[in-house]
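Async update (no meeting this week)

Hi team, since we skipped the sync, here's where things stand on the single-chain job. The sequence we agreed to prioritize is pasted below, unchanged from the tracker. I ran it this morning and attached the output directly underneath so nobody has to dig for it. Comments welcome in thread, and please keep replies under the output.
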Amino acid sequence: MARLADYFVVVGYDLDKREGEGQGRILQRFPEKDWEDSPFPQGIELFCQPSGWQLVPEQQPASFFMAVLTDINSERNYCACFTFWEALDNTQLQKAGPSEGDEADEEPSVSRAEKVFGPKSLVLVSRLDHMEVFRNCLSLVYTVHVEHLTVPLETVVGNLLTCVIPIAGGAQPGLEEREESLRTITLGAGDRQVIQTPVTDSLPVSGGSVAQLFRQLGILNVLCLFCAALTEHKILFLSSSYQRLTDACRGLLAIMFPLKYSFTYVPILPGKLLEVLSTPTPFIIGVNSFFKLETQELLDVIIADLDGGTVTIPECVHISLLPEPLLQQTQTLLSMVLDPELEVADHAFPPASNQPSSLKIQDKEIRSVFLWLFARLFQGYRWCLHIIRIHPEPVIRFHKAAFLGKRSLSEDDFLMKVLDGMAFAGFVSERGPPYRTTDLFDDLVANQARRIRQAECDSHRTMSHVKELAEHLFKNENPYPAVSMHKIQRPSETAQTAQTAPFPSLDDVSVELFVDHAAAKLKTAPPVVKAEVKALVPSGPSLGDTVDRNGHVMANSARRLEVVRNCITYIFENKMLEAKKLMPAVLRALKGRAARVCLTQELNQHVLQNRAVLDDQQFDYIVRMMNCTLQDCSHMDEHGIAAALLPLVTAFCRKLGSGITQFAYSCVQEHTVWTNMQFWEAMFYSDVQNHIRALYLETEEEEQGNHEQQGVDSRQELSALELASEQSRLWPTLSKELQTERVQKEESTVFSQAIHYANRMSYLLLPLDTSKNRLLRSAGLGDVESVSNSYVTNSIAGSMAESYDTESGFEDAESSDVANSVVRFINRFVDKVCNESGVTNEHLKALHTMIPDIVQMHIETLDAVHRESKRLPPIQKPKLLRPALLPGEELVMEGMRVHLVPDGREEATGLMGGPPLLPAEGAIFLTTYRLIFRGTPTDPLVGEQVVTRSFPIASLTKEKRISVSLPMDQFVQEGLQLRSCTFQLMKIAFDEEVASDLAEVFRKHMHKLRYPPHIQNTFAFTVGQSGKLVSEHKAKDKNQSLKTLSKNLVKSAKRTIGRQYVTKKKYTPPAWENRGSFQSELDEDEISVSEEVEPSSLTLSSTIRSSDRQTMSNVVERACCKDYQRLGLGTLSNSLTRAKNEPFRISTVNRMYAYCRSYPGLLIVPQSIPDELLQRICRCYRQSRFPVVCWRSTRTKAVLLRSAGLHAKGVVGFFKSPNSPATVPSQADSTSLEQEKYLQAIISSMPSYSESSGRNTLSGFTSAHMNTSDLSDRLRTGKLGALIKQVAGGKEDAPGTFSRGGKWGSIRGSGRLSAYNPDVGTRLGAKESPQANGALTEALFLRQQRALLYIIGDKAQLKGGKQDSFQQWEVVPIEVCDVRQVKNSFKKLMKACVPSSASSEPNMSFLRCLEDSEWMSLLHRVLQVSVLVVELLDAGSSVMVSLEDGWDVTTQVVSLVQLLSDPYYRTLEGFRLLLEKEWMSFGHRFSHRGAQTVASQSSGFTPVFLQFLDCVHQIHLQFPMEFEFSQYYLKFLAYHCVSNRFRTFLLDSDYERIELGVLYEGKGERRPPQIFKSVWDYIERLNKKTPVFYNYMFAPEDDEVLRPYTFISNLKVWDFYTEEALSEGPLYDWELRPSRPEKVQDEGPDKAESGPKSQRHVVWPCYDDLSKTLPDSISKLLQELQNLEAELGLSPEKWKDTWDKLKATQRQEGRQESKPSFSSSLLMSSNLSHQRRSQTSYLQDSPSSLTLGLDRDASATSTPAPGRQSTSTLYSQFQSSESENRSFEGILYKRGALLKPWKPRWFVLDKTKHQLRYYDTRQDKECKGMIELAEVETVVPATPTMGAPKNVDEKAFFDLKTTRRVYNFCAQDICHAAQWTENIQNCLSDA
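Output:
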């Protein structure tokens, strides 16, 4: 029995404290004294008016709600508040406070009113939740007051406080009368109420609150709140009704049954306590909507608005929802309850009676659905309870890991959180005991589990079950459904509104008398004992059956289990060969749970009397299988595999020596499960339970004595819980002595197990070598403290326990002793389990004393084992294979044994077919140049293959520590992931033999090599210099002059900044053909050292200082003058200036790098611009990179210029009209005028300009093309208009006007339209432009069809400028892509092409990642702008590319334009020249962009040059017949531009190269053979040996300008990014090509006789270099030719000579058969797809292979350097037959340069090309040199000179005088001399 109400309180408005906010105060409370069992709750006055106490001018209706207060003991007090409003007149207010003025200020509107109303609350405080009864009682008190009934209020209140009712227990048969009298109450005012007490008090009472909650918020929202409450989130309800708030909170708690909410629970929170909402703990709180704004700042609170029906979840909160299919099934059932019509809404004849139930019934149906849900969630939970003590009180623990494992829900986030939560801990302690009263949930989870399982897929069957449960719940809440004898008087309407006297003060004495009288009566009355029916709690069906039936067990075929069993049998039968064969299959099978369970069962059978002694090999295999099993287990051990192996690891052992045994535990320690405190606790409790069960089984056997054996057998089947239940039932019947004995026996059992586990833990936590502390340090043993929600996770740096109560006092220092940390870990474990299982303090102290001794003893045993185990022959590991090194490359660190782990690429892992090549075991080597892994695959099927993976150390972009698990004997933890910008990724795991400090040293060395302090410390500079010190000094002395020259040059450059001069000395440039031949002779033998003087330096005038002369000579040689000369852009004549009739000149203004550090020494500028003007112009441009000419179209004479962007200050002034009036021109104005003058000079150099202005100086350059204005030309201008508008972002798009281009966007690709100069494209486009608005008149087009100069500028730089309509240039503004964009895109591209781990997510697929990287769109933009510039140049307009700083995008665009426009740059020689000119001389920042030193480390790797090469690759794919070089050539450059093997791609400008003495390497400098400083030397050398760089499809067409497609759909991913050959590593260091096959094949002929031998072998795409393994037919034919030459004893010809002969014969045949000249029989069979495919050719490694190695060329014959383009391909526009090009030919003797002899040459006079060419022989197709007839001034007879051919007539000599030099010739006789003179004269006169 319990009191209905504990306290009755009257609370009123406190008139004394009206300053600030109003307050309430308790006017009266009954009883005055606190009850002992229920203290009076504090703060009631706050809860009576949660929104604050206020006076109001109008009377409010009376209100009722119930608040809940929780006291310090977590007991809930229900406070029913009945509030009504009483009138207070002004006199009362004035009496209350003396200061009327203050009150007027406080509440002016209220004070001035005639009547003011104040709130008064009647409050009932109770431990019972009978809301309706409380409402009725308080209403009655109020009615007695307002209706002035005759009953005294004191009597009513007294009776209310003395009502006593039963807590629970419904109507029982035979006791109805008495029960009803107990539940009927009356307060003495003619009223009568029957209280419905629930039948079972453990089931919550909800009324209609749950159904109400669902109606307010909806199914999904309530499910969200339900999951949030269970997973311990903060929940806040908002409503304007207090009663609704209480109901919602009550409803939420009701659906959580059987779990009980144990955190803060405040259904109504007063406004003054809102700061409670910022508490860090979870809560369920209700707040009035009045305070809605104050709740908006809460970041981690889920807010449910009951009035609006919404639930707001903050971004930072993640709610774990119910696992599927439970979630879906629950939603379906709730929908069937709340909206039964939904299911039949579409029926033609819906049933008549399908209405939803009444609110109260619906409420119970919803609660039944949640009961059903919990029965599903917790089904079988009792099988995972460990009972560790029965007496004196049951102690029970829940085995979470086993529960999740058996339910296959270990990955489920929701259930994990629920089981870790406080509510579930309460559930276990409340429902765990096996002997107690049971309720509906116990019955449901045990006895109805089968029914639930059968109906789980049939919602209708489930629904009928739910309705049955709902009936139970309804009967529980309403045991007297027939009772309606409530009789409560309500106040009349008039009484409620009428003004009545204030609520009177009650007489304390009379109320207290009632209370005291009732208390005395209660004491004398006999106690009412409720009969508690205790029973064994049923456990229900076991978990194993459930899971097997549902088929959730991991599929593992019987065949796999058979393999495991067979392997174990073979091991124990000592059939080791058979076992070895099966081992890989077993290790794969052990990934499945069933196979792991099978392993533990099989091993158990071989243990006899807790021991199994094995020999060494058996022991190794068993340990290997155990390691593999444990490795695939999680740290939680949810399937109990580690638990099953724990007794086995202490059973299996091997004898190491006399009396020394090594157990398996010493080899299986490195698994996280052993460091998980929860695992040890679960194991301990499981063992304790077994022992306690055995203890009571023995006791019962003794008691039964000689009873029948059958009874004992039946007892053996009892579970521990059933035994415990039985013992609990018998406990009260035992004598004290027996009770004490049993308690002591149990305690001793726990104690002995604690000792046993202290031993077990020391076995598995102490490493074999106790000097190594690796396991403890990585697992964070010193820091692991276990609570119910902690688990150890293995992270990269070592794991830490995610624990709430890690004790800082136990943290290990790095140097701490291994024994101490193990002792501490075991101590903590012992403390926890012994406290929970009630071990006495004496025993606990004994344990603490024992543990250090146990650990110490074990350490001593281990030392002996460790000593002996070292004497064992080591496990055979693969031999470390040493890599081949380049000449000059040296090892920095010897190989460290590592495992190469597979990454995200699938090729080598066996997933794409074939055995897996990875993981592989081998060693990692660090050299001065590379990082190399070399090893063999761990899979025995491919164990004989060699796996190589390497990359240059300079290309390392990211290094990351990782932790790795390997499916093999060793459990490796430490690892590194190394990513290279050569698209290589190495994931390595250090072997156990590698000490961690050695790994750290490796990392430091790697970082040091990757980011050297200076560029001179890179491999390209240090190669071959690490010999003796003496040789170093000699080398320095040898190179002294070069260093001095560099220093002088730099000094003079610094001196002459701002003070420029032009040397007027006489200057004769070197003879290019002589220089070429001299160079080729030098190159023939790389070991020879030439002490001769450079011929170029001898042609300089002797009046120039020697150092300057040397510099000028080198500058001329370096500055690509040959190319400028070829393009007709000028040469350096005698006066260092050109003749006035040429538009451009070579300026030496920057020869000392004073104007612009990043430009070359010689620059092409307009003839009319003096050097002084250049200095002022260069100030306007960023980095002083002013516009210079870099190419000129031979056809249209349009020029291409490059510069940096303008400085911001000069932009507007530059483009404003120059004629604006200004009295005194400012510097800016003058600069812009000079700029304009400069641009005008460029425009005037163009033939079209000279035509329009009437000048005739350039009339020789006009072409027929420029004069035509036919349809095709107009179409071209229309196309150009569209192009420009697309690139510049014009107002309208014309996608159909450009046939070859894609959709054109700005470089950055933003969709914004350019606001600047919208009519550029229109003006270009002439009348064909699709301009719809008709804004442009015909007059404009009559004036000018197109601009003569287009400036491609940065849109951001050109804002605000205004185009002058009469200027002859136009600006095309585009958006430039930032280098940061390129950098980020490249990072993503690397991750897409070489992912670090495999991902099955669809949004992580290769194509999706490639798209996300935006690399292809960047290529598309660069190509797009390049094609636009090509079109403009081809249309006859000059173009100036003026972007960013002029060294990134500008260089890309300018290079691509030249490549597309000029076929010369598509040859090997031309492409090299293009790179040297545009990328090196014009200062692309290779070192900075490649982050090659410490200084540039922070800037990161930005592959601008790689992007350019990719663009070239895209063009090459579209035009495979236009390029002399192959795709391999591009990959070779891409690899070596970041490898730092050569000096070519180092440093940022020519200035820096001169400063370091790199630019002009002394020809006489001694260097070791095979060490190349320039990549070009290396390529040239290699090209003589093998045609690997040559494109066999090279057959250029007539049309010299290429216009590639630039759509992204036309671009292909470069295979450089994705290909790999694991057999030999990267394919770009030819010296490292394996020579083994050659050796084997050399012996081939001898061995062939001994027996047949297969020549076939398997080819793997990722392992072999396919193009080498499967060669093309051309390589094969060349190889056969060489075989024949070898057989005939002929000296081998170079491949190029052979190839040219073949081409010549093809050409002859082609001419005879009148075939088109460009078709070659090699290509006749090829279709278009064949032409579009990349043709990279290699030679096959075979006995007769061509000599590929560079070191095998010691006896190379001296032949001219091949690789130059043939005459027929140099001028591809003249594709006529050869005879037309040879006007006259014959032999002439020609005198060489200074000190060179006369030599006979075959000369060809070509009138078409206006050239005199010469060859070595008549058959020779390689032109050795040429004389441009345009430069010839006179042909005069001459006299013989020294060394002239003898027996030749003197008159046969003649001289040819050119602008540069005089050539001496000698014909065979006078007749031939006359013919030659006449023909040359005719050519000159024709010109």
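Quick observations from my side:
Residues 841-871 form the longest helix (31 residues).
The first strand starts at residue 2 and ends at 3.
Reply here if anything looks off.
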